Amino acid sequence: MNKNSTISLTAISLFASLTTVGAFIKIPLPYVPFTLQVLFVFLAGSLLGSKRGMQSQLLYVCIGLAGVPVFTQGAGIGYVLQPTFGYLIGFIAGAFVVGWMMERISNPKTYHFILANFAGLLVVYLIGVPYLYMALNTWLGVPSSWAHILMIGFVYSIAGDIVISVIAGFLATRLYKVFYTIRNY
């Protein structure tokens, strides 16, 4: 393995680890706790690019599904039945979208990062909220209306996630030059 591959794998592993840390910095809410995972998902996409950002989140999810307790409520293959698993799928897609958008901007400014984070946040919710609805109404047997699902899966956490998206934009602006060389490997 050459130096470039080692640096790339280290960066991917770093953001998978940071997402794990973010899972345990949480505010408990019904069904969907508010966590700092989104911060590291967006930083992964912004700083590593679409492919490596997505790989970092895929690694995070695979480690959890393999049984290492990195998720907010446990681990193991059975976690796919948790109502919040859709958000984890959304993290993978969200990191990709953020990275994809940032790869198209040659000299990104803070507002570029923030707008890309908002797009990534939209993707996370577009996957997470319907999965929450499906999980509660089918295999968990908790009849829930779309209004209830939108309240617990979107409204309770959107304000905090918007703030985190902005913070991630400012952090990415400061860290971009450091990670730019990694993105180009």
What report would you give on this structure?
Helix content is 73%, strand content 2%. The protein is mainly α. It has a single domain (3-183), classed as Orthogonal Bundle (Arp2/3 complex 21 kDa subunit ARPC3). It has a two-stranded antiparallel ribbon with strand order 1-2. A hairpin with a 6-residue loop joins strand 1 and strand 2. Helix 3 packs antiparallel against helix 4. The longest helix has 38 residues, at 146-183. It is globular, with a radius of gyration of 16 Å. The mean pLDDT is 94.
CATH fold-level label? Arp2/3 complex 21 kDa subunit ARPC3
Domain tally: 1
Number of helical elements: 5
Number of strands: 2
Q: Indicate the CATH architecture.
A: Orthogonal Bundle
Portion of residues within helices: over 70%
Q: SSE order, as H and E? A: HEEHHHH
Overall average pLDDT: 94
Q: How many angstroms separate the termini? A: 13 Å
Unreliable sequence segments? none
Read across the widest sheet, the strand sequence of neighbours is 1-2
Could you tell me the radius of gyration in angstroms?
A: 16 Å
Oligomer: single chain
Note the main sheet: 2 strands, antiparallel
Strand content: under 5%
CATH class: Mainly Alpha
What is the general shape?
globular
Question: Which structural class matches the secondary elements?
Answer: mainly alpha
